[in-house]
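Working notes for the structural subgroup meeting. M.R. asked for a predicted model of this chain before we commit to crystallization trials. I am recording the input and output together here so anyone reviewing the notebook later can reproduce the run.

Input as submitted:
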Amino acid sequence: MKKRYIIPVAVAVVVLLVIFSGILKTKGTKYTTKEIQKDTIVQYVEASGTIKPVNTIEVGTQVSGTVSKIYVDYNSVVKKGDLLAELDPSLFQANVDQSRAKLINAQAALSKATSTLTYKKNNYQRYKHLYEKNYVSRDDVELAQSNYLQAQAELDAARAEVSAAKASLENNLTNLRYSKIVSPVDGTVISREVDVGQTVAASFNTPTLFEVAKDLTKMQIETSVSEADIGKIKVGQVADYTLDGYQDRAFKGEVTQVRLASTTTNNVVTYTVIISVDNSEGLVIPGMSANVSVIVGEARDVLCVENKALKFTPSDNKEKYDKQGIWILKNGTAKRYSVELGLSDDNKTQIKSSEIQEHDKVIISENSKNSKKQSKGGRPPM
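Returned structure, recorded in token form:
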């Protein structure tokens, strides 16, 4: 009686052990299997980039001179119109004084020309009246008229001189104002490129003296995304990013711009993608390197298989297939099913098929002596 019970129990134990290990034997071939389960897959596009302020103003100078005073330094908080630095104003002030003196002379010349014109006009009128009574000759009248017209031209020239002197004075006053470097916006000084005593030359290009970040609570990451992945990136997608300075923390951002201009480096084409960053805590600093993962797809509660299963083919199978498929072990027999692929990550891939159910056993490798080497993982074939 004992043998009759011992044998079935032993057989049942062996079967359970085989099922539990996921390895079954079929015609001398052992397969390693995994249960198909429902899971959530989040697909990412990974990139790297640099943290930058959203609005950075380069403050320069439109005049040349020697820096005499600097009023701010790195990280200084400034308001619009605040004085940042000052060039030596002595030369600019001398030009202002000279042009102001020229204006005074021009105005005096204008006053004189006005008086002369009035006299010569009246003289011309008198000669005309005397000529009508035959007291003077016609030559005398024409000479008086010529003098009058000449005085009128001299008055116009004097007026032009006054205008030119005013313009010169205004230009020199503007240059004097430009010798004082002021902040164009409210913000924070993030870069200072000059020191006291340094000479700056404003010729064809305006030299940059300071960089002012308008609002450091709003930052952005400029990332480079390869042409293979750029089609998946859309404005509004959520992005996770990490910073070397905060390795134990992950941050959230959002795609705000996908720039159309490409960059080619060593035959690799990339596109710039802008990720907005909320820096209300003040943790993010301009210039930090960021590792970004943009979420380009998410599927919840879907059938998933290991990526190795998508590359498996029995060693004794020589048939070629047009569609992607997986091999399912049912009743000790391996059978191939065509599937449609969905999202994938580094470990698993979503599959779509009406013939496959949750808890079916998908074959991921073969352990027979004549088996081919199976893939050790990685992403599924495209």
